[in-house]
């Protein structure tokens, strides 16, 4: 295809056409290759994502270089997104390194401060042709160092979504609707009515956080109501790690990463393909 693209137009097309682009959090080269293989095979547009923790683990330049190779070799549109960043300097460093989409997460601050911090990022990111995502309300669970207890998680307020998008000019919005990061203890308690109201009032693409373990029919309902991006993180790294554990359980002497990484890659690819289909993203590469 060529080079990494901003996810703005990709997500606008998804919202208009009623599907969601799957965004996968990757932590190693093998995970990145596995989700690219999955998207390529299904001809799905793709968002590669890393959290701040992964940026600190690998360094933004290595991540960008690997993502750029994927974009060059694959025949699908690919964006590279920084997930849940609270640190302005790190966010700017990622844009400089070549990320094509960033999330400023100031949702832990009062509304006015969330607006002010998001506005600042919108200014610099838009100038660089980079997509911006911001969060309203609070998604529960654990994402790197951000821990939100169940009782502190709160739904996005529809009128605030309207004023937030107007005040900040943010092109993509993650409204908290009851999903959580990590693995759900029971079924997620998604506020579909709230989502419907937000989607009716706000035309920018909406982002579904906490995509690990949401039952298929609930994912489809969210997508139908306007969720244009679905984030999947925890489930992927569990599949990756479990496959490696199974190799060592069967053969504790194994010491060749070229062997024990193979089933791990296969597990991530299979799971990513499931999620792509669930989000209705398969076969949509040519539409974005
Ligand atoms: Zn998230």
TrEMBL record:
Q: Which residues take part in binding dihydroxyacetone phosphate?
A: 182, 210-212, 231-234
Note the superkingdom of the native organism: Bacteria
The entry marks the following residues as binding Zn(2+) 2, namely 105, 135
**InterPro entries, sorted:** Aldolase_TIM, Class_II_FBP_aldolase, FBA_II
Q: Which UniProt keywords apply?
A: Metal-binding, Zinc
Keyword DNA repair in record? no
Q: What name appears for this protein in its UniProt entry? A: Tagatose 1,6-diphosphate aldolase GatY/KbaY
